[in-house]
């Protein structure tokens, strides 16, 4: 009897771990999407300095149009990268593109969104999925 109880408890423990493993896997995917770490190079010089404040607002401005190697867009790779932004705390606008299909002349290839209180009020359809509100 003791052996059957032990096996049943082991099976319950294994089944209980399955959702936990899925949860931890998704948290790992989230972490990979939060961090972009690597090097960017381009034929022309660009300048960009921006701080995103938890999706609530951003401050800074810049433009980058080149190639990126490192961890970006949730994957480790060498890829095309475009980013243009202006952040004024109460209103911020970003255009972002990763991968070989990115073309700054074709807005449909870019993620484009507004954040900050004014951005959410004025452009509710163009806020990122992670933004509050």
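Sequence proposed for the structure above (133 residues):
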């Amino acid at each position: 009897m003791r052996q059957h109880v032990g096996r049943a408890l082991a099976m319950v423990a294994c089944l209980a771990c399955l959702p936990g493993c899925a949860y931890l896997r998704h948290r790992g995917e989230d972490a990979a999407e939060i961090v972009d770490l690597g090097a960017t190079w381009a034929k022309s010089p660009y300048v960009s300095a921006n701080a995103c404040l938890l999706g609530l607002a951003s401050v800074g401005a810049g433009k980058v149009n080149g190639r990126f190697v490192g961890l970006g867009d949730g994957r480790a790779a060498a890829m095309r990268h475009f980013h243009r932004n202006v952040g004024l705390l109460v209103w911020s606008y970003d255009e972002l593109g990763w991968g070989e299909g990115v073309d700054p002349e074709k807005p449909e290839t870019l993620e484009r969104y507004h954040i900050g209180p004014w951005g959410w009020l004025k452009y509710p359809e163009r806020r990122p999925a992670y933004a509050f509100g």
